Every structure is written in structure tokens, then in C-alpha cells.
Amino acid sequence: MRYLFLLLPFLLGCSHQPKPGSHAFYYWKFEEQGISDSDTALIKQLQVAHFYIHYFDVDWSEARGMPVPRASRYYYYNIVPFLKGSYCPVVFITNRTFDIMPEDSVEWLAGRISDKIRDMTAHFEESAAGADYQYGTNWQVEKPKIIARRVSLHKEIQIDCDWTPGTKDKYFHFLRAFKALNKENELSATIRLYPYKYYRKMGVPPVDRGMLMCYNMDRIDKLSTINSIFDKKVLSSYLVGTHYSLPLDVAFPIFGWYAWFRGDKFKGIVDEGDVLIKSGVIDSKGLISRDTTLDGRFFREGDLVRKEQPDSATLKSAIALAMRKVPDYRHIAFYHWDAASIAAYENIIQKTFADY
């Protein structure tokens, strides 16, 4: 027994040891301006070893009667610093794509997305090696003259989709078809909290691993919601008594927005809510005090603008809760890479990376 007591401090000291290379961020921007030197320095300072890079979205086009890629315009010089270490392409597919798309088109979609990811990755890698060009939003990517090539540092591809019981079969069919076309890559999928807890109803995606998304956990369009992005009580209710059959990584939020309501009707997300606060048109309860216009949108006196952003102290304790539930993670990721957001949560980020 005395040997157990001698070993106890050692065993306790070995718990929660940070995993080398586990620090990760999502990069979800499409901007023309190049990355700044401060971003490059911040990557080094935070010892970020892995980036999940948003390649493009896929949504159903009513006009074309088919799924099409959206928001896929990148400027290569803007992301080269994020290609220095390991990275993972991420493709977001809307749930309505699988709701509308016929079953016999699923494998076609898997092929088109696979081809576009390969083209984009080749271009990114060539850009990192010295090429300089850009491309548009079609499935086909115009092939530039290859002036350099290097070995790709991405071994994983991630699919992001908020599937439902009604779209589960088509989405899982897509994942199996996509995996068959990308055998050289590990395939991961984002897992929201609802399908994590209710996996018997929602199914477990046929992928190699999942990313548990510890945010966007409640309905933004409900007036009674406290914070749709992050609520520790809601998180705790989802992390009880579940054994998920996929190995998981974990992602946490460092972003915010404002939910806009007129009466009990949700009007949209307002990213510029701080401007309204600084201009004095929002009172302490979040009510618009006078008619005003911001970025072409008219806000009426009496409208409610609800601020939604993780509180630092609550986020810190929630991270500890989630990490106890997912001890065998490979990456801890924050969403998303933004200098202002990182500055606001830098202490939490550094503490998390130091502890886990």
C-alpha cells in the first residue's frame, strides 16, 4: 500500500498532460487582403500546429437544379502561412442539399467534391511553393501553369453538415462514397451536440473520426433562448451519459454576434451590433431606442438585439467539462482564426493549450 502512496503524486502529475501538436484553429475567411506579420507571429506564439481550412460550401441551386459550390474564392497569398504545418480541408454541405437531391446523384456529388478538393489542394500547395494565382466558384478550376509542387501536408478531409433523421441515409451514403474516392485520406465529420447525445436516433457517420462542436447549441430564432452560440447548462445536458463510438476531437467558440428580433419574430444575425451600442441606440436591455439604419438594414424602435458571445469564465469551466468527457482527443480547436477574437480570449486559449 505504501508504494501506492509513493506513486500517487507521480500519477496525478501525469494527468492532463498537453499533447504535442494538438493546438488547432479553424480558418473560415475569404478575404482579399493578405495575412499580416502579426498573424504569423501569433501562430508561433500560440504554437498552433494544425488548421482546419474552409475550402468551400455546397448548397442546392434552385436555378440550376443541382448542388453547386459556394463561397470558394480564395486569394492564395492570404492563406500560405496556414499551410506551413498540417492542415485539413473542410467542406460545408447544407442539409437541404441532401433533402432535395435525388439518391442517385449522391455518388456524383461525392466525385465532384473530391475533384474540387484535389484541385484546390494542388493549387494551395503550388502557391505555398511559390505560385501566385486565384480561382472562381465553379466545380471546374482553371488549371494554372504549375511552377512548383511540394508534398501535401494534409492527411485528413472534414465534411461539415447538420444532417437530420430525414437526410441521414443520403448523407451517410455520400460519406461512404466520398471515403471510397479518397482512400489515401482520413475522413472526419463534424458532430453537433444533439446527434452526439441522441446517436441512436441520428446515427453515427461512417467516417474515421468526428469533431465535437461545442457551440451553436440552441435555436437562435427563439426569443427565449439565452445564448444560441454557447450555454454551459445546455452543454452539460448533452454531455451526460453518452458513449460515442467514434474517436473525437473537440472545438470551442471564440466568436460572437447579435440576434435581432422584432416582436417575437427573428429578423437575422447582426455582426455589427457593437456599432449600435457605441452609437447609443441600444439600451441596457438590448432594445433599440430609436429608428436607425445600419449597413442598409432598418432597425425600428423597440426591436430587440440579443448579444450572444461566450463568457470567458463560463467558457473556461465548460472546456474543463468537455475535456473530461473526451479524454482521447487528438486536436483541440478554436473557431475561428480572427485577431480581435483571439485577443479577447487569449488567456483562455493559452490556458487550454497549456492544460490539455
Description:
It comes from Chitinophaga sancti. This is Glycosyltransferase WbsX. It is a single chain. The chain folds into two domains: 17-255 and 309-355, Alpha-Beta Barrel (TIM Barrel), CATH 3.20.20.80; 257-307, no CATH class. Helix content is 34%, strand content 22%. The chain has helices spanning 2-13, 37-45, 76-79, 95-100, 106-128, 168-181, 193-197, 199-202, 232-238, 273-278, 312-325, 339-344, 346-355, and strands spanning 23-27, 50-61, 66-70, 86-93, 156-160, 186-191, 209-213, 248-253, 257-262, 265-270, 292-294, 297-299, 304-308, 332-335. The strands form three sheets. It has an eight-stranded parallel barrel. A three-stranded antiparallel beta sheet has the order 10-9-13, with no helix packed on it. The longest helix is centred in the N-terminal third of the chain and has 23 residues, at 106-128. Residues 1-15, 132-136 and 144-148 have low confidence and may be disordered.
Number of helices in the DSSP assignment: 13
Give me the secondary-structure category: alpha/beta
- C-alpha Rg, in Å? 22 Å
In the CATH hierarchy, the architecture of the largest domain is Alpha-Beta Barrel
Report the CATH superfamily of the largest domain.
Glycosidases
How many structural units, i.e. domains? Answer: 2
Q: Residue-averaged pLDDT, rounded?
A: 87
**What's the CATH class label of the largest domain?**
Alpha Beta
* C-alpha end-to-end distance: 30 Å
H-E order: HEHEEHEHHEHEHHEHEEEHEEEHEHH
Roughly what fraction of the amino acids lie in strands? Answer: 15-25%
Taken from the alpha-carbon principal axes, the silhouette is globular
Please state how the strands of the largest beta sheet are arranged side by side.
1-2-4-5-6-7-8-14
What is the third-level CATH name, the topology of the largest domain?
A: TIM Barrel
Largest sheet: 8 strands, parallel, barrel
Low-confidence parts: 1-15, 132-136, 144-148
Bin the helical content. Answer: 25-40%
Strands, total number: 14
Protein name: Glycosyltransferase WbsX
Organism: Chitinophaga sancti
